[in-house]
Design brief:
The complex is a heterodimer of chains A (120) and B (107). Helix content of chain A is 0%, strand content 57%. Chain A has strands at residues 3-7, 10-12, 18-25, 33-39, 45-51, 58-60, 68-73, 78-83, 92-102, 104-110, 114-118. Chain A has no helices and 11 strands. The N and C termini of chain A lie far apart (40 Å). In chain A, the strands form 2 sheets. In chain A, strands 2, 4, 5, 6, 9, 10 and 11 form a 7-stranded mixed beta sheet that branches. In chain A, strands 1-3-8-7 form a 4-stranded antiparallel beta sheet, with no helix packed on it. By secondary structure, chain B is mainly beta. Helices cover 0% and strands 46% of the residues of chain B. Chain B has no helices and 10 strands. The chains are: A mainly beta (120), B mainly beta (107). The interface between A and B is medium-sized, with 22 and 25 residues.
Chain lengths: 120, 107
């Protein structure tokens, strides 16, 4: 069974840092792009970042550029999101998802999410 | 960036109703359009990709259509488990990959 499990969320003060992890299982992790998507409380979905299969290409939404870093460890089947200089607006549930790129592209499956709360 | 809009933002329907949700892109995206379903407190789930291709395991009462800028998600006979929020997402121009604001289907 393909599964993604996020961890690392929690309460952090503005300006602080947090590192999210996503453990993948049930598929050949190194063969797939991966992504982070977030959802602020009561709001819609926002794509945050993508990373290529070997980590050589990374893309970010403008609002997190320079503050967030996506990375992966294919030997450990793990995806990460290092979040620095956090702002109130970064409060959200963060989902990792597999990004299937095959002509068309889509997110499937998604993890259960981990909540990040930025507040003083 | 490509902007996505959805209408309506919410709707009320009954079990057995036919429901159609519309998604519009700010520029042509060919058929690079995906649909997701999200239930409260749960992760989104892929329903349809490439505008009209049903993901494995998704009931056939769901269907998608459209190309260019205008797309639809139709539920032919609404079931109790279909009450959820539905999001469209364009995958034509990346980054960024943009989602619509969502349509909440309520009883």
């Amino acid at each position: 069974e393909v599964q993604l499990v996020e961890s690392g969320g929690g309460l952090v003060q503005p300006g602080g840092s947090l590192r999210l992890s996503c453990a993948a299982s049930g598929f050949n992790f190194s063969n797939y792009w991966m992504t982070w998507v977030r959802q602020a409380p009561g709001k819609g979905l926002e794509w945050v970042a993508n990373i290529q299969r070997d980590g050589s290409e990374k893309y970010y939404v403008d609002s997190v550029k320079g503050r967030f870093t996506i990375s992966r460890d294919n030997a450990e089947n793990s995806l990460y999101l290092q979040m620095d200089n956090l702002r109130d607006a970064d409060t959200a549930v963060y989902y990792c998802a597999r990004w299937l790129v095959a002509g068309h592209n889509w997110f499937d499956p998604w993890g259960q999410g981990t909540l990040v709360t930025v507040s003083s | 960036d490509i902007q996505m809009t959805q209408s309506p933002s919410s709707l009320s329907a009954s079990v057995g109703d036919r429901v159609t949700i519309t998604c519009r892109a700010s520029q042509s995206i060919d058929n690079y359009l995906n649909w997701y379903q999200q239930k409260p407190g749960k992760a989104p789930r892929l329903l349809i990709y490439a505008a009209s291709t049903l993901q494995t395991g998704v009931p056939s009462r769901f269907s998608g259509g459209g190309s260019g800028t205008d797309f639809t998600l139709t539920i032919s006979s609404l079931q109790p488990e279909d009450f959820a929020t539905y999001y469209c997402q364009q995958s034509y121009s990346t980054p960024p990959l943009t989602f619509g604001p969502g349509t909440k289907v309520e009883i």
